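[Primary structure, fold]
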Amino acid sequence: MKKEDLKKWRESSTEEMSQKVKELEEQLYKFNHQLHIGQLKNFSVIKKARREIGVLNTLMKEKHLTGVKNGVEKSKKG
């Protein structure tokens, strides 16, 4: 995933990220199926899909943690 893509995903909502993760998981399932029946020619797409899923999950976790951290700080001040 390129840096421009990371910036775009950091600005997007968690719902959009979770939707993309679902799409990538479906693609990964199809790629693995193609691999087992011998139709997949480019094996690197599996690695790429898995990596993108991991990056998006990490970004969602970061958003969640920063939201929790900011929420705790606001509640302590208020």
